[in-house]
Each structure stands twice: as structure tokens, then as C-alpha cells.
Design a protein that fits this description.
single chain, 10 helices, binds pyridoxal-5'-phosphate, pyridoxal phosphate binding, about 15% strand, PyrdxlP_homeostasis, globular, alpha/beta
Length: about 250
């Protein structure tokens, strides 16, 4: 019989973020089991946009290493504060041309490449002493509801061109489907991304899909990165984000 006082005391020393990581880990594990997938093939990318460096430190202490950021200036500031930690940084937000150099220099992965011009700049600007930049192509699987991502019809040409860029390593596809509580619609959007990837017939190993509200559907359809913010760090307050220099 566990001692209830002891359990309560232990729960108290565990931070909210550590508890959330345990809960999300359990969701990922259950979803993997339900679709007979190996849990270890699904990466948890902690989306820390709008959250302070201290939150990343806590998540690191609880075992997370991969962090996703959407806003360049904000990300660079946190990177400066966290140079003592061994972190892997992922850029997951929209990319303007004038931001590619800093992204190429300060991130290991970019999930949100959706046009060739951006890919070419990232490849040209990736520093020679760093390994090739891992990239995913963002695809718009929700039609007019979304402005980000390349159209599915453009994907084969874009993928072929990006695969030839010397300083990039094309890993797979990413999508942010229109949010919905309809699980059948969630599955359909993620299945679409998986099918688009299979149709490319290229040696790709990554499907970046699934967020706090739909990670189960994404894992059932083959996600290898789930990008989780709210379920780990709580609701976001966009007032915290510093203004972005265009
Ligand atoms: C903010 C964001 C997430 C995390 O979303 P949550 O619903 O908070 O889990 C994932 N991916 C991208 C591209 C995001 O911008």
C-alpha cells in the first residue's frame, strides 16, 4: 500500500512541466501501442514559443532535448540564455527571406520550408563547419483554410529540387491541418500527408505532424515528430513575444 502522504510530497517536488511531460509521454506511449508502433520512433518536440528560458530549463531537467520555436528574435534570445545546455533547436514558424541566414546558423532542423527560394538561401547560408541542415517541407493539406505550406501539386518538384541542395538534408514533410475536434477529419489530414510522402518515393524518414489536441491521430497515421506546446507548458500569452524586426 503506497503511503498517500509520501506520494503527495513527491508530486509536489515534481514541477508542473515535469508532470505535463509525464502525461504527454503517456499519451504518446498509448497512441503508439494502439497502432502497434515502436514508441522510440516518435520524437517529442517541445514547442516553447512565448515561454521563458526557465521553462526550457525545467523541461531539459525532466529529460527533453528538442525544442521548437516560431519567432527568430525570441528564439535567439533564449538560445543565448541556454548555451550551457545541450539542446537541439528546431525552427517551425513562417520564414521570411531576410531571416534565413540566422536560421541556417542557429538551428539543427527547419520544419517549415515551403518554397525553393527559402531552401536555396538556407543551403547557401548553412555554415561549412556545421552538419547539413535537416529540413521538412511544409505542405498545405487543408486547402484554402491555410496560407502556409506548399500546395500538394507543387510538392514533387519542390522536393526534387530541395533534395539536390548540398547543405540541406531533406528529411520529410510537415503539416499544420486546420484545427478540428472531428477525429475522422484529423486522421484524414494526417493520412493525406503520409500518402503525399509515400508518393514522392524518396528516402524520407520524417513526418512532423500532431500538436497538443491531435497527437493521437497523428501518431496513428505515422508521425515521427509530434510538436507539443500547450500540453507541456500551458496556454500561451502572446503579449510576451517581443516585436519582430521585419
Ligand atoms: C504553436 C505550434 C505548435 C504547438 O501547438 P500546441 O497546440 O500548443 O501544442 C506546433 N506546431 C507549430 C508549427 C506551432 O506553431
Amino acid at each position: 500500500m503506497p503511503n498517500p502522504d509520501g506520494l503527495a510530497a513527491r508530486a509536489q517536488v515534481m514541477s508542473t512541466i515535469a508532470k505535463n511531460i509525464a502525461k504527454v509521454g503517456a499519451r504518446i506511449r498509448e497512441a503508439a501501442q494502439a497502432s502497434q508502433r515502436d514508441f522510440s520512433t516518435i520524437g517529442l518536440l517541445a514547442v516553447s514559443k512565448t515561454k521563458p528560458a526557465a521553462a526550457i530549463r525545467e523541461a531539459y531537467a525532466a529529460g527533453l532535448r528538442d525544442f521548437g520555436e516560431n519567432y527568430l528574435q525570441e528564439a535567439l534570445g533564449k538560445q543565448q540564455e541556454l548555451t550551457d545546455l545541450d539542446l537541439c533547436w528546431h525552427f517551425i514558424g513562417p520564414i521570411q527571406s531576410n531571416k534565413t541566414r540566422a536560421i541556417a546558423e542557429h538551428f539543427s532542423w527547419v520544419h517549415s520550408v515551403d518554397r525553393l527560394k527559402i531552401a536555396q538561401r538556407l543551403s547557401e547560408q548553412r555554415p561549412a563547419q556545421l552538419p547539413p541542415l535537416n529540413v521538412c517541407l511544409q505542405v498545405n493539406v487543408s486547402g484554402e483554410a491555410s496560407k502556409s505550406g506548399c500546395a500538394p501539386e507543387e510538392l514533387p518538384n519542390l522536393a526534387t529540387a530541395v533534395a539536390h541542395l548540398p547543405r540541406l538534408r531533406l528529411r520529410g514533410l510537415m503539416a499544420i491541418p486546420e484545427p478540428t475536434d472531428d477525429t475522422a477529419a484529423q486522421h484524414a489530414a494526417f493520412a493525406r500527408l503520409r500518402e503525399l510522402q509515400q508518393a514522392l518515393n524518396m528516402p524520407l524518414d520524417t513526418l512532423s505532424m500532431g500538436m497538443s489536441h491531435d497527437l493521437e491521430a497523428a501518431i496513428a497515421e505515422g508521425a515521427t515528430w509530434v510538436r507539443i506546446g500547450t500540453a507541456l507548458f500551458g496556454e500561451r500569452d502572446y503579449g510576451r513575444v517581443p516585436p519582430q524586426n521585419p
